[in-house]
Amino acid sequence: MNYAHKIKARYRYAIILLKQMVITDFKLRYQGSVLGYIWSLLRPLFLFVILYVVFVKFLGVGGRIAHYPVYLFMGIVLWNFFAEITSNSVNAIVERRDLIRKLNFPRYVILVSVALSALINLLLNMVVIGVFLVLMHVPLSLRALWLPLFVGEIFVLGLSVGSILSTLFVRLRDINYIWEVIMQALFYATPIIYPVSLVSSKWPVIAKILLLNPMGQAIQDIRYNVVTTQTQTLGSLINRWYIVAIPYAIVVIVTVLAAMLFKKRSPYFAEEV
Question: How many domains does the chain have?
């Protein structure tokens, strides 16, 4: 009991500060806009409509996938979740330079607050996806209980990558532009707007490589467990467990590297920002 009390006392200040940062960020995000928080829902919806019209109606992509509109929307929302964490993390440390110089607190709180703000947006969008699931009569099963696990995977990956980016950005301001280019490439290298079956039917090896990307793996696994079992996953394309484990190993490696880099550089943030 005393040990638990010590842990609570040790992180009490960090938790209070984290809570205030998340609340402040969420309040300021749409300050001055007419629709306010509704934009959290409208932005992915607008993108979904555009991609659905272009790729489904005009190009005929995904016609053989059951409940493809929900399938597509799910991918967009999950990708935006990862993109929001990483892009907002890049300059998070630099933007809070005054706070860092004035207060002594764990620097990781800043990045966790960014990730939690993105998670709140994801939860709001999941409500909309839930409505889609009902309207399109998508049958849910107990497999949907895997959803938090894979969302957690994306959360940890985004937080870790964001930590690396924000640490590098303190000394290398070009990181912001470099990451924008990388995200553009990753968006098309991740099966979001096209089904994996479209690739695997012609280039099976490339399809497997695409799913070694943790984002591709997580998105496909969520689609499989929540939307339709027609979704091709890494496990359905490769029956070797050590290959299927590669995306998870990548997340672990990135997380360890991020923690080591952040721990090494964070004591100097006040001087360098």
Answer: 1
